[in-house]
Amino acid sequence: MARYRSFLFAEATVGEGFLILDARESHHLVRVFRAKVGATIEVLDGKGTRYLGTIEIANGKSVRVAVESVERVNAPKPRVTLLQSIPKGKAMDLILRMATEIGASVIQPVFTDQGEHGQLKMDKWQLIMIEACKQCGLSYVPELSEPCSLGDWLQATPIAEGALRIMASLEEGSRPLLETLNAAGSLDEVIVAVGPAGDFSVAEYDQLRDSGFKAVRLGANVLRTETAAAYILSVVDQVAR
After folding, report:
1. Structural domain boundaries, residue 165
2. For a Cys staple, 189 with which of 24, 124, 163, 231, CB 3.0–4.6 Å?
3. Which pLDDT tens digit goes with each residue over 142-193?
4. Is the pTM value of this prediction over 0.90?
5. Residue 150 and residue 224 share a domain
6. Are 186 and 123 in the same domain?
């Protein structure tokens, strides 16, 4: 029998040997997926815990799950942070989804000279990440940090020992990404910076470099910002983990 998968939102109830899902997840299970009593289900909390059990009450407003086992998973290492310039349009939705699927630990949206500066939809972004987590069965949802300017983040975040900072760069002389990762050895944290469609400005490149970021080349072609984010995170995941 296929196993359903849900997310444990703050409105859910966790009891001794049971869970009661919130109205949104309950509606999705019963009204959309037609889940029935007795169906197997896993419920993810996005913080490393997953509950495995069966549906004992299939109510469209409050599904009750009989919990049979609880699994806890350690956070993956190294801790990977995506320092992402907020792009214009809907590209950030795709970036958040792909970054979650690939396994980013933290996503820090930043305002840059050539990026987006309008109103942001943080609640929507959080839901996009949760849906990606559910779809892939991930134990952890990335931490979505409050957006800030690139300069403010750099000023407030000192270089940590055991951390590697790299930035996707179109500058001449940038080293290949794989070469830079292999030379770094064992790492506790990797921070990857990806610029907007118009690239980081000269001043921003200088700021990043002064803050310990190494310029890396992502292949021979110029990539869209969403493609660059997926590319660099994927290579980091394969090499550093």
Report:
1. 79-240
2. 163
3. 999 999 999 999 999 998 888 999 999 988 889 999 999 999 988 999 999 9
4. yes
5. yes
6. yes
